[in-house]
Amino acid sequence: EPTKDPSSVSELVPDRNNLTHLLALARDPNARTPDLTKAFLQDPVVTLELIRTYQFASGRTAGAPLQDLKDVIVLLGPALIQDLCEQLLERQQFNNPNTVKWLTAARKRCVKAGNIAYKLADTLRGSNPEEARIAAMLKELGDLELICKHPEAYVGHAEQLSRVKLVYQMAKEHGFHPDASAVSFLKRMQCPQNLLELIDPEASPSAAEKTKLRMICRAASEVVELDSQENLEKLSPTKTLSSRSALRVLQIPPNQYAELFEEFTSIIDHVNKQEALAPAPEPSPARDELESTPQQEETSSETEVQHPNHLLDDLNEIVEAELAPSANDKLENVEPLVDEVERPTLIMAPKLQIDKPMPRFNTVAIDSMIANSAAIIATQKDPMDTISSVMESMITQSPFSRAALVLVNFETMEAQVLEGRGIGFENGGVSIIDDSNSSFLSREVQIYSFAKQGKHKTLFGSMTYAMGPVGMNDSQTLLLYADCGPNEVLPFASRRMFRQLLTMLQKHCGGVLDDDNEKFAQQEESQ
Q1: Which of 109, 154, 381, 428 has a CA 20 to 30 Å removed from the CA of 67?
Q2: Structural domain of residue 470, as residue ranges?
Q3: Could you give the CA distance from residue 4 to residue 94 in angstroms, rounded to a whole number?
Q4: Domain total for the chain?
Q5: Which of 257, 288, 275, 250 is nearest to 346 (CA)?
Q6: pLDDT (tens digit, 9 = 90+) per residue, 19-37?
């Protein structure tokens, strides 16, 4: 292992954790092909190397068509896959945590694009969703190549600049644009021609269906690009898409697009959580041992390799040296350690138990909840009681987990929680607004579904929320606030629901601050 981080590497850097998991699957005689396929699709570098190995081993000409990784895995067999993983494990790695962080972000950008393209192709009845997934994933390889060639420059700019400025600065300094460099790199790697047709903007599609799949890949790139710019709201179903948008060219019906947009947010949120759950980038002692003794696996006995408790021979030798005063203790401790190797990988991360999973609502459930709230608004006469009842239904019948009624005073710059539902709210609590650009000082509806910047963070610790005025006058605003928790995004169902509920409340009790200030002041004191 080098003592300092390399200034660049000659080859793309794969994910070592995913490679370790792939190596374990390749050695397991009971491993299923879908599990191997899913693991390969977690890393675009490994996927590309698998395709190249298949073309070389099968004697196919460079650029021969390829549509499904499952067929490739079956034809290669576990022995060749194991050799491929061992070769990739020998590649030079970056040690700088910041470089590893941006490498992971670039790798996950590819995974997001692939999953979104698959969902689009499957929903729009594309001829081959798997082909669209692989092409969209490889289309985003430009950032990975750029980080490997100029890690210091990329990390330095990425920590300070926005995504748009980062791409411009790297193109200005190094003449390197991610999209163009990805196409050039794939041509040098002799990528299959049918995939290049979907990636290269200058290539001529061989069929009409290829034109549609190419537009799907462009749409997937558009989604992940706006996500990296923290501007995914631009594609919201409530917004008008740009005339140059690939999603608009696909002419998706409004109802279907609303469902697709919610799927996009779910995919992005799922992959982002996998990033947060990934193990530390520093190589563990087991990986150091693996690098320093590459011949150890070849000399181990065949029985140990095939036994499910000996997926990693070198790791077990270290464990057996530290543990087990008896044979029984040894057997009890080895099994959990094999799980510990697999659990931090990208494949095992979704098995993490979540205390309160966010419900997914269909159109019928949304309309039912809004109808119930409309009935509450129609029957309640007192504005404060009406808002309180609607907030209660928001918590119990919608994706929202927290809601609050907040009174903001523009003169004193104070925000007082008149009534709260959910964890984290203290009725009557007053917070000082020390930022003149705070969303609480706005008189418009504020919805941040994917906000990551500190300036969007609310007084309640959440960066994703929905907030809008129920009533206002010159010096005060009465805000309805709701979110799905500090670390959750807002699904499309909650955004649509919030806008409709806010509109109904504004019509019913929008004069609560203007028509009866004295009564409202008394209610505020009683709260």
Answers
A1: 109
A2: 363-526
A3: 9
A4: 3
A5: 275
A6: 899 989 989 888 888 888 8
